[in-house]
Amino acid sequence: MSLPPALIEASYEFLRTTPPFRKWKLPHADEVTFVVSRHKNHIGYHRGTRRKVNSHEIGISEACVGHTNTLLRTMAHEMIHQHQQRTRTDTPNAEHNADFGRLAKIVCRYHGWDEKEF
């Protein structure tokens, strides 16, 4: 699967219109930077600055993503991180806290994904 930035952006916009994301008031794709990564160990990432709530970069590794389902799951995972940064429920220096687990469970229930794999 080829992974151009436009496809990453489209997956973000698609998910942004679905529950539970549509209630989170996430920024439009025009306000997010999308990056095609080539990292072999990290499937995706979200970078933002706590002091600047509107600072968002989401990267997806084309070395790790070969299917649409993987792209959507990874994007959903990074959107939770984005939401946590915006609502300041993230834990600095910790990747996944209890709130992340709670949100992941909700996302997985809506989209039919295995939360153990998420």
Overview of this structure, please?
The chain is 39% helix and 18% strand. The longest helix is centred in the middle third of the chain and has 20 residues, at 68-87. Strand 2 and strand 3 form a beta hairpin. The chain contains three helices and three strands, in the order H-E-E-E-H-H. By secondary structure, it is α+β, with helices and mostly antiparallel strands. Helix 1 (5-16) crosses helix 2 (68-87) and helix 2 packs across helix 3 (98-111).
Q: Strand fraction band?
A: 15-25%
Number of helices: 3
Task: Report strand order across the widest sheet.
Answer: 1-3-2
Largest beta sheet, briefly? 3 strands, mixed
**Strand tally, please?**
3
Query: Helix and strand string, N-terminal first?
Result: HEEEHH
Mean pLDDT: 91
Radius of gyration: 13 Å
Distance between the termini: 21 Å
Structural class: alpha+beta
In terms of quaternary structure, the protein is: single chain
Helix content: 25-40%
Low-confidence stretches: none
Can you tell me the overall shape? globular
